[in-house]
Amino acid sequence: MDSPVEIPYQSFVKINRTSDTSIYMQIANQLINAIQRGFLPFGTKLPGTRALSQTLEVHRNTIVAVYDELFAQGWVESIPNKGTFIIGKDQDEPLKFKNFESDELDHYPKVTGFSFKTSNILDNPFEHSACEYLFNDGVPDIRLTQIDQHSKIYSAILKRKGHHKMLGHYNHDGSEFFKKNLSRYLNLSRGLPISKNNLLITRSTEMSIYIVSEVLLSQGDTVLVGALSYFSVNMIFQKAGVNIISMPIDEEGIMVEHVREACKKQKIRMLYLTPHHHYPTTVTLSAQRRLELLNLANEFGFIILEDDYDYDFHYDKSPILPLASADTNGMVVYIGSFGKSLAPGFRTGFIVAPENLMAELRKHLGIIDRQGDILMEQVLGEMIAEGEIHRYLKKSVKIYQERRNHFAALLEECLGDLIRFQIPSGGLAIWIEWNVPINLMQLSRNCTQNNLFIPKTLLYQNKNLTAMRLGYGHLDFDEMKNSITILSGTVRAMLE
């Protein structure tokens, strides 16, 4: 058995005297760590309290407290007239102290000791940069949100005694108050004749689509998407093991005749659409094609998954109502987000579907998000009931419309001879197509060198298309001017 003197305790017990953790707990935790990793074998005799206190240069009472903690947690035992020993199984061989590098106990393992499945399907497609200016695919400006006011509502709800019981229960079904108000809101704003029983509250659009995919899709099913579609959704579909077929898109949205031909050739399980403003091209699916798709769904029995990701942002005219508002046969599953113009922490996603499907969807939500966020939902419910969300949207939509017009004018002024685009009726992004041959990945790298970041997820290039989706919602007028000036200057330098 090793003599206590032979073990270099000072080499793996590091005391931080400025830490909020007490010194005796620091020592106890590090000794436990050493035991667990085999550096202090079972059966090892620990030094006496006076000897270890001198070694570690702490008060003897600190070591007494350390040993008391080790004893309380069941790591050591005290044998009268013999000393304190690490508890463990009897050793058949003499105990040997395991050698280690001086900092080995301070680091978590770099790799697992077991094998596991890996997949590049779910690789994170999002990039980050320290550039002063950047484009995105169309997100609201956090600076326009009234965070203080929203926080006050949240704080007031938290203080109400009647709501304290919410904190003690899991509730993945969500706030009944919020669902009741949200169903009314969707009825009035989007023509959806639903009740709270047709709603499932989720954390995001991606969570909504994931749950729907888990319930409605099976390995080998066929899903139709636009020839250009939302990359995150495609990743979810690929993970589900389905076959994805792209349908052509034109200025009126997805081309229905191609959907019909696909249905004649094989069994189609689902059609995924972003009809209000197609992602990424921003075109609106025409009213005639909406009716044709509903008829096709009824004829061939496929599900329409309607993603209305930016319904709230429309400027020039009243928005076209969702396909779900005209669905009488239960063929459409409608997903959307609420509070997108609010701060990220105040946003939520939702699914609208017939009640029989909703019951199954709730089972899956209960597994991945059992606790929910019922207090935040209560806040959003009150914002609807008190008309706060209407007032905020009215104000923010006016600002985003001004930004859209200004952004479009700058594009025409600085890049009009190089690009073509249509001003969208809503949303927070503009789709531009280049009239000149240019490598978009190289353009992105060159812009980064000039302090403008353009993520690769905004770039669309093949032998027939060179295009970009540029979000403007997060930019004020000066930021727009600087960003487009950098983009224009970089492009023209590449074309020289």
Automatic annotation (TrEMBL):
Which SMART domains does this entry report, sorted A to Z? HTH_GNTR (SM00345)
Q: Name one GO molecular function term.
A: DNA-binding transcription factor activity
Keywords from the UniProt entry: DNA-binding, Pyridoxal phosphate, Transcription, Transcription regulation
Q: Which InterPro entries match?
A: Aminotransferase_I/II_large, HTH_trans_reg/aminotransferase, PyrdxlP-dep_Trfase, PyrdxlP-dep_Trfase_major, Tscrpt_reg_HTH_GntR, WH-like_DNA-bd_sf, WH_DNA-bd_sf
- Keyword field contains Transcription regulation: yes
Q: Which CDD domains match?
A: AAT_like, WHTH_GntR
Q: Which domain of life is it from?
A: Bacteria
Cross-referenced Pfam families, in alphabetical order? Answer: Aminotran_1_2, GntR
Sequence ranges assigned to domain HTH gntR-type in this UniProt record: 21-89
Q: Read off the SUPFAM superfamilies from this record.
A: PLP-dependent transferases (SSF53383), Winged helix' DNA-binding domain (SSF46785)
Family as reported in the entry's similarity comment: In the C-terminal section; belongs to the class-I pyridoxal-phosphate-dependent aminotransferase family.
Protein name per its UniProtKB record: GntR family transcriptional regulator
Source species of the chain? Chryseobacterium piperi
Taxonomic lineage is: Bacteria, Pseudomonadati, Bacteroidota, Flavobacteriia, Flavobacteriales
